[in-house]
Amino acid sequence: MSKALLIIDMQKFVTERIAQGIGHYPDNAIENMQQLLALFRRRGEPVIHIRHHTPAPDSPLHQLSPLFQALAECEALPDEALFLKTTSSAFSSTDLLAWLHAKALTEITVIGAVAGFCVNSTVRAGADAGLRMTVVQDAVLSFALPEQQITAKTLHEVTLALLAAGFSSVVTTGSLLS
To answer: 120-131: string of b/e by CB count within 10 Å (b at 16+)?
Structure first.
C-alpha cells in the first residue's frame, strides 16, 4: 500500500472564520472531506492529520486555544498519525517525510485548509521531495482575502491551477468515490 490521505489544518479556526462571514469556497468542502475520510478509513488506507500550532500564547492557533482543536468531522482516530506543524508546509517543521518513507507511502491525497497557504506549501514541498501529490479540488477550502480584494473562489481556482501545472494532479471528490 503506497497511498495515504493527508488532512491539513482542519481545526476550529476554519468554522470560526466561516461564522465570522469571511468568504469561503467551495461551500461543500467540509462535507466532501468527511466523505473522503470515510472512504480512506473503509479501505484501510493510512490517514494523516496535520494541525497548525503557533507558539505565541495569544495566537488563535496556540495549542491552548479552543480554535486550535480539530473539527469533530476531521478528528484523528487513535491509530491515525498526527503531526503538529509550526510552518506553512507540513514537511518543513515535522518529520512527516521520514514517517512517509518509513511506511513506504509515496502517493499522497491532500484535503483541508487553506488552499493558498498551507495546502499550497505542503503540496509543493511534497512534490519537490518526489512524492506523487493529488489535490481534491472540492475538498480543499479557500478563504477570501478582502484587503487584497481577492475572492475565495478566485484564490482557489488560481492556486489549484498552479498546483496542477507542475506539482500535483487535481481531482474531484466524485472521481475518487466512483
So the answer is: bbbbbbbbeeeb
Task: Name the domain count of the chain.
Answer: 1
pLDDT of residue 40: 98
CATH number for the domain that contains residue 42: 3.40.50.850
Beta strands in the chain (DSSP E): 3-8, 24-25, 47-52, 81-85, 107-113, 132-143, 169-171
Give every CB contact of residue 175 below 8 A, 6+ residues apart in sequence: none
| Residue-averaged pLDDT of the chain | 96
- Our CA angle for 169, 171, 172, nearest 5°, is 165
Other Cβ atoms less than 10 A from the Cβ of 137: the count is 22
What residues make up the domain containing 104? 3-177
With cut-offs at 50, 70 and 90, classify the pLDDT of residue 139: very high
